[in-house]
Write a structure and sequence with these properties.
With 164 residues, this protein is mainly alpha-helical. The chain is 38% helix and 0% strand.
Length: 164
């Protein structure tokens, strides 16, 4: 294995990694080939698949549930769904972090937009939470930002201070 490969931190990430790399499948079981990025390159890592899954599965949810406030900053809401240069990049690089590499199911993107939190906006529905959670687990297992390639990023910081 290349020296930059880091074995996933727990068994569930390993299973997700094998499911996508070994079987070439996506969540839901249907095969969809990678959409090559600029220059026809799929990225050579899990990053291209992570971004493609985000754009096909998560962006429609964010557009429906979050854009009214978090794309425009309405009511002093933090902006993280405005293209920067695209919504994926805006979500991934938002500070404090919306995603947790260590515990993706506890990512603030999910937990804070769930009924019972201090979030004052629209929360994810019961059908949307598993979709966003599965993508966050894929991100944690395959993104180079979480050790799926070179480098690592810190886990999500508490969002209470961010005013989400």
């Amino acid at each position: 294995m290349p020296e930059t490969w880091a074995m996933p931190r727990d068994l569930s990430r390993w299973i997700v990694l094998l499911m996508f790399l070994g079987a070439g499948c996506e969540f839901g079981g249907a095969y969809r080939p990678l959409d090559p990025g600029p220059g026809g390159d799929t990225g050579g890592s899990g990053d291209a698949l992570v971004k493609q899954e985000f754009e096909s599965d998560v962006v429609p949810i964010l557009a429906q549930m979050c854009d009214a406030c978090h794309k425009t900053g309405a009511g002093n809401s933090p902006i993280f769904t405005a293209p920067d240069p695209d919504v994926y990049s805006a979500v991934v690089k938002y500070t404090p972090a919306l995603l947790s590499c260590a515990t993706p199911e506890q990512s603030h993107l999910i937990v804070y937009a769930t009924a019972g939190s201090d979030h004052t906006g629209t929360n994810f529905t019961a059908d949307q939470i598993p979709v966003v959670t599965e993508w966050a687990q894929l991100y944690a297992a395959m993104s180079s930002n979480c050790g799926g390639g070179a480098g690592d990023t810190p886990d999500a910081a508490p969002m209470m201070d961010a005013g989400l």
